[in-house]
Amino acid sequence: MRPVVISQSATLIESVAKGQIRQANETVILTAAERVFAGAGFGGATMAAIAEAACLPKANLHYYFGSKQALYRAVLARTLEDWLVPTHGITPDADARVAIEAYIRAKMALSVQRPHASKVFANELLHGAPMVKSLLGKELRELVRAKAAVIDGWIHAGRMAPVDSTHLFFTIWAATQTYADFDVQVSAVLGVSELASQDYARATEHVVSMILRGCGLMGSPGS
């Protein structure tokens, strides 16, 4: 019999397939972990409960993340990364209104799509950020300083009204994340059992309009 030779291309395809399976499983686990951590907190959450929510064996969670603490850190790190990706549009050559509006809308969309992630992050901060303090003081601080410098450049060039560029980010975070972190309060005041798509749409337009007006950016893009 002739020996079976596995080509490099077949090996590559197998490797890519395994990588895709791993990525898919990690995403399922992280999404389930967001829900469980949001509801039970770090102390109350168990790997068994997360495995049940993910519809995967508990062994898979330990295989991919090792421990509950490591999984919790991964949830927080993914949330922060996803929140910061939309800031990439804030560049010196970008239109100020377009960039800031896009960032606000992206943050609002994340509050709609990933409310549990926001709640986990908020709870971590309320407890002094023991797991992510280093991320906040390094990566987040450096990114905000860089993007604030871009906004200061826009202000200096007369492309938007003078604002505190650093505190502008705090305002955007507070205004957008409240619809995830305090959705129960917002729903109660609006007199609904839970926020619907039209409620989020209304909130998004309000936040966009309010912040753009404060930045002197309510004219047409480029004006």
Salient structural properties:
mainly alpha; Arc Repressor Mutant, subunit A; Tetracycline Repressor, domain 2; 2 domains; 10 helices; 75% helix; globular
Description:
The protein has helices at residues 8-44, 47-54, 58-65, 68-84, 96-113, 115-126, 133-156, 165-181, 183-190, 197-214. It is mainly α.
Supply the helix-strand structural class: mainly alpha
Whole-number mean pLDDT: 91
Number of helices: 10
Q: Look at the structure and name the CATH superfamily of the largest domain.
A: Tetracycline Repressor, domain 2
Q: What's the total count of β strands? A: 0
Major sheet details: none
Helix content: over 70%
Give the percentage of residues in beta strands.
Answer: under 5%
Q: Outline the low-pLDDT stretches.
A: none
Identify the overall geometry. Answer: globular
CATH topology group of the largest domain: Tetracycline Repressor, domain 2
The separation of the N and C termini measures 76 Å
What order do the SSEs take from the amino end to the carboxyl end, as H and E? HHHHHHHHHH
